[in-house]
Amino acid sequence: MVQGLYDIFVIGGGINGCGIARDAAGRGYSVALAEMNDFASGTSSGSTKLIHGGLRYLEYYEFRLVREALMEREVLWAMAPHIIWPLRFVLPFQKGGIRPAWLIRLGLFIYDHLGGRKLLPATTTLDLRRDPAGKPLKPLFGKAFEYSDGWVDDARMVVLNARDAADRGARIFSRSRVVSARREADCWSIEIKEHETGAVSSVRARMLVNATGPWVDKVLSQAMGNSSVHNVRLVQGSHIVVRKKFNDSRAYFFQNPDNRIIFAIPYERDFTLIGTTDHDYTGDPRDVKITPEEVNYLCSAASEYFAEPIRNDDIVWTYSAVRPLYDDGASKAQEATRDYVLKVEGNMCEAPLLNVFGGKLTTYRRLAEHAVEKIGEKIGVRGTPWTAASHLPGGDFPPTGYAAEVRKLKERYSFLGEHHAERLIRSYGTRAHDLLGSASTSADLGRHFGHDLYECEVRWLMLQEWARTSGDVLWRRTKLGLRLSQEEAKNLEEYMAAVPAQLAG
Ligand SMILES: Cc1cc2nc3c(=O)[nH]c(=O)nc-3n(C[C@H](O)[C@H](O)[C@H](O)COP(=O)(O)OP(=O)(O)OC[C@H]3O[C@@H](n4cnc5c(N)ncnc54)[C@H](O)[C@@H]3O)c2cc1C
């Protein structure tokens, strides 16, 4: 069945695919997007979750990337203040350490002044013997620099881009794999296989965008029949989540003897997130899993700094993902460029293809703008850049307005506990009111699945955000997987499986 002709067909529902679909739909193109699994189930939910310039990339002279990323920090914060917020980082150092203090100070000076910093505070120096940030650290760290970057709920940023793209008219095929894409006269003919039913449908598009991250070469070879392609270098990165190691709201930036760095970040109120690692990966990106060597590396690197060591049995969760880095021939994984590359293929008479290589969460919006510019050159310009001054769904409140939003929600729904109201605003922003609707007691929220998860939120996620499994809800739309027992997660899975498919949106 041929379902229609779109201007643009995007393969891949990670941050880059969803960002491009949203930008293009907002400019008036007709857009379709297919994601073979759940949104953000690839690399885009396995990141360190930082909206950052990338201080360490300065060592590799990545000034273009760092500048663009620094400028994006406040643009993205204003665009989605519910899921993005500022975070201060404490960078302890000691005499005779890996990098001299003057070099770090110079790096941070450049970081503060390269561009875009209006609301975020500048770098300061800390005396760790007096500042509370020194409390959990070994006493040999007397001084530290404190600088600004940002935090993001990565998986929610992806799904909110998909939601907004759909609200602007894009057709979204979730859990639908592109099995083939062939040029046919002056357009693409694309076959999509729906995961649950196995049904295959066809659509046509004037331009194809391959935004499949770590799968980009696989799609080129398997779905498009290109032989011997090699554009991306797959680099595994893993994180561990341990029970809360410190009370401070600031994160730590630790330098390791191997020249790498790791972060220790306050996470989901009761936990600490530690990561990441960097090593080449050759398997299927879907199977990536933390190795015992990575666990040891992260525990021992963090234990060099924390007075109380991090042990294996502190770990409550781990996750891993694969960076789809553009292969620039760097010898070490940690040195491969983090910048993105957009390549358009197709001669004058052929339907064009845009391949997306590399990229960061932080620069996704700019990547999408550049991608849509290239699309315009090929199939005709529509609209103008618009996303810099836009809001993601629920993000229509001032960047510093989070506490006021929590207050407003609590005023209207006085039965909500403080932490529940905070979580709802952090996840849904102003749309938390739509989610709760006319509820006036907790009983109105429907079945209780554990912690503060109720039926009305699960239904919202199925209806508005394409959630189909308990994993979608517990690990990507929320992080309540850290709170629910196995029994509770199983009950949720059974409940969701019994909800009619049409509710899935
Ligand atoms: C360990 C780690 C830490 C990171 N930390 C940060 C950070 O702190 N800040 C930052 O800015 N960036 C960070 N990044 C980088 C960032 O996460 C990635 O650049 C970004 O998520 C890549 O997104 P993507 O859309 O290209 O790929 P993905 O998120 O992998 O999306 C590609 C999608 O394509 C789908 N797909 C594949 N084949 C098909 C097909 N045939 N049909 C349909 N769909 C298909 C996949 O299922 C997948 O969902 C980190 C990355 C890693 C690995």
UniProtKB/TrEMBL annotation:
Pfam families per the UniProt record, alphabetical? DAO, DAO_C
Q: Which family does it belong to?
A: Belongs to the FAD-dependent glycerol-3-phosphate dehydrogenase family.
Species whose genome carries this gene: Ciceribacter thiooxidans
Q: Does the keyword Coiled coil apply?
A: no
Q: What is this protein called?
A: Glycerol-3-phosphate dehydrogenase
Q: Which enzyme class, named as a word? A: oxidoreductase
Catalytic activity annotated for this protein? a quinone + sn-glycerol 3-phosphate = dihydroxyacetone phosphate + a quinol
| Cofactor(s) required, per the database record | FAD
Ranges for domain Alpha-glycerophosphate oxidase C-terminal come to 387-498
What start-end ranges are recorded for coiled-coil regions in this protein?
Answer: none
The cross-references to InterPro entries, in alphabetical order and at most eight, read:
DAO_C, DAO_C_sf, FAD-dep_OxRdtase, FAD/NAD-bd_sf, G3P_DH_FAD-dep
Q: What is its EC number?
A: 1.1.5.3
